[in-house]
Write a structure and sequence with these properties.
Number of strands: 9
Largest sheet: 3 strands, antiparallel
Shape: globular
Low-confidence stretches: none
Mean pLDDT: 86
Order of helices and strands: EHEHEHEHEHHEEEE
Radius of gyration: 20 Å
Length: 206
């Protein structure tokens, strides 16, 4: 993990480190670089030749991300690198897409429309026929939420609301993974898409 000395999302970064340690189960060790001024030597000291190096960048600051990307590009010929950012990075148009491709950039996304999906193509066709335009993000979301709950109720009736944590459906833009942290709170949706830049476009990995 690479982060500024005073990250904007310090609490999230702490939770990320804790979650990684709990899930590692003897796997790859998490190494951290915490510095406002990045150097190639500093980053290289944490990389392992001959292994896949997954680098999570805990920042949304354009200058910091650009500096990190430039250093990683210098190291790419000697190390296998996968860069991981977050959903906010999709708004950073200043970063060249060729760099995103070269560093195999992965992003977690709360919503993602895969226009190559047969379901999405069918939905678009029917939406355009009915409304004469393309749906916005709320059009996709409204369809997904309605389908998820109506399908669940048609299969299980009222009992569906007692078992929202069952495996969800893959829909047009939303992944449902409902979890109930405790009996005193309701369900939360922790479903996300993992997407990556490949051949200058975003594609779903998981």
């Amino acid at each position: 993990m690479v982060a500024p000395a005073k990250p904007t999302k310090e609490k999230f970064n702490t939770l990320f480190s804790s979650a990684y340690a709990a899930a590692r189960n003897g796997g790859a060790l998490l190494k951290e670089v915490t510095a406002d001024q990045l150097t190639t030597a500093l980053i290289e000291s944490k990389l392992v030749a001959g292994k896949k190096n997954v680098i999570y960048a805990a920042s949304n600051e354009l200058a910091y991300i650009t500096s990190l990307i430039n250093k990683l590009l210098d190291l790419q010929s000697r190390y296998e690198i996968i860069l991981v950012g977050n959903e906010e990075w999709t708004k950073l148009d200043q970063i060249d897409n060729s760099y995103k491709n070269r560093l195999n950039l992965h992003l977690p996304m709360s919503n993602f429309v895969d226009y190559s999906s047969p379901l999405v193509r069918d939905f678009l066709s029917k939406y355009r026929e009915r409304y004469g335009t393309d749906p916005n993000k709320y059009g996709f979301l409204g369809f997904d939420v309605t389908m998820y709950y109506l399908y669940g109720m048609s299969k299980q009736g009222r009992e569906f609301f007692r078992a929202l944590d069952q495996p969800g459906m893959r829909l047009t833009s939303t992944k449902f993974k409902m979890e109930k942290p405790s009996e005193t709170v309701g369900f939360n949706n922790f479903g996300i898409f993992i997407v990556r830049y490949n051949d200058f476009r975003l594609e779903v990995v998981d």
